[in-house]
Design a protein that fits this description.
386 residues, alpha/beta, Spore Coat Polysaccharide Biosynthesis Protein SpsA, Chain A, 60s Ribosomal Protein L30, Chain: A, 2 domains, five-stranded mixed beta sheet, 12 helices, 31% helix, elongated, binds cytidine-5'-triphosphate, binds magnesium ion
Length: 386
Amino acid sequence: MSASSPRVAVIVVAAGSGTRLGAGMPKAFVSVGGRTLLEHAVHAVSGMRSDAQLIAVVPAGATDEVRRLLAALAPEAVVVAGGASRQASVEAGLAALHEAVEVVLVHDAARAFTPSGQFDAVVAAVDAAGEGVVPGLPVSDTIKRTDADALVTGTVDRSELVAVQTPQGFPRDILLQAYRAATEEATDDAALVAAIGHPVRIVAGDPLAFKVTTPADLARAEQLFGSAPVVPRIGLGTDTHAFGGDGELWLAGLHWPDEPALAGHSDGDAVAHAIVDALLSAAGLGDIGSVFGTDDPRFAGARGEVFLEATRERLAAAGLRVGNVSVQLIGNRPRFARRREEAERVLGDILGAPVSISATTTDGLGFTGRGEGVTAIATALLVPVT
Ligand code: CTP
Ligand code: MG
């Protein structure tokens, strides 16, 4: 089997106007992640295991443009003009079938993100059954029957329902016969095949084969397959200060009047400083020493919140906002639990994001266990401002 004498053909119908999407152009030419829906669909077909004849059915008047669009991706694609209905467009595609083709798949370009493996699975199922095969998913909503006045007249048994997708696959002769016999418009090919009395079998569909119909579908596609996925950034920071500073303790943005002060060029707030380092590292902006100059006289005795506020401004300038921050304080004092929520609120307000703080001791071990100082370890998550 080769592409010049293919046993399988895939007709990609892309000639619709996309009225419900309302993008001001035919839906197939709308881009997601820098590629048109048609290109996404054709890309999936070219990823099939078997060589297939690809027939793209496009808006009349756009055939030359599509040939250029697909020249690199699918140089052997046959491009034909569609009709006024989906059914007429499929018929135009059928007229272009290569004589060697035995199995025909009909696919909506609007289901642009259908994985290649779904095409392979449908071909395999048609080969195995010798009859029509349609991918489908179970219906999860409860479905009601209503009358013209929007009054509910009954509930449909959901277990009998399947939401069908494309590609729908058929033995060539059966599909041609169904189209020749068609007297009414159908919204899919299986309906025409069933109308001439041939069985159609359901195989497992794929959630990624959803149809782009409305602006909400397009937004979902952009989220899943857009070129600029939102990647969060993580950062880590630690800080240690010894007790022995002047005045009273400042820690985690709070004043602790009866506790011994931590020593440091600034106020020695190890929790605030660890958070600043975590934020700066997540942003790739350096660390507290390189950004604020810990020897800089402007920061002598400065409160932790001064650094935090300045850091938040730098993040905003870099197009980042804080997702959340998590800190652990390691030390014997102060007894942190009773003011934990207060500290989380104060720091969270400064950063405009949740801050969670836990505290622990080291079972008497090390400098924190001997009560000589405290250490804080912080992680921070930043997200791009969109
Ligand atoms: N289609 C087609 N020719 C038509 C109408 C539809 O080839 N005359 C194709 C569409 O391009 C689409 C598929 O059939 O890939 C499913 O149709 P639908 O999602 O309804 O697309 P549109 O008809 O373009 O959208 P709308 O109904 O909102 O106008
Ligand atoms: Mg339509």
